[in-house]
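Incident log, entry 3
Record: Cytochrome b-c1 complex subunit 8 (82 residues)
Problem: checksum mismatch between cached and fresh output.
Input:
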Amino acid sequence: MGKHFGELAKIRGLITYKLSPHEQRAYAGAISNGIPNLFRRFRENVFRVAPPFIIAYLVYEGVEREHHRRTRKNPADFENDE
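Fresh output:
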């Protein structure tokens, strides 16, 4: 009936190696190597990533506080309204 999608072309000189899914160990070393590596990578990058976020948060809080202060009504402006 024709060729299937994976058999449309014959490529010479290409060698592929595959490992059976039953022989792979997907979580090999995840606990013994992965957890310490996670802490090491966090420790190395925290001082590179955290300061810009902290500065941005402090700027945002200051701007929001100043905006709230400037948009409040002044009670002295409404003393003589009756």
